[in-house]
Amino acid sequence: MAQGVPHGVIGRLLLVAYLIEAGLLLLIGPWSGLWDRNLFVQSLPALNDVARSGFIRGAVSGVGVLCVGAGLADLASLVSRRT
User: Fold this and answer.
1) What percent of the chain has pLDDT over 90?
2) DSSP letters spanning 18-82
3) 51 and 36 Cβ atoms separated by less than 8 Å
4) Is the pTM of this model over 0.90?
C-alpha cells in the first residue's frame, strides 16, 4: 500500500468542503438580490410572498448555519484524530 493520505480522509475532506460551501450559500443566499430574482419566485405569484418572508429566509439561513457547523465539527474531529 502506498504511503500518503488514506482514501477515507480524502472523502471526509470533500464532505467537509461540501458542507461548508453549501452552508455558506444557504446562509447568505436568502439575503442577496438573487433570492428575489429567480425563475420560481417570478413565475408563481403565491410563492413570491412566501419567499420574501423573513421567517422563510431565516429558516433557510438556519439550515445553512447547521451545515457549516456540521462541516466544522467533522473537520475538528478529523484533525483531532490525526494528531
Assistant:
1) 59
2) HHHHHHHHHHHGGGSGGGTSSHHHHH-HHHHHHHT-HHHHHHHHHHHHHHHHHHHHHHHHHHHHH
3) yes
4) no
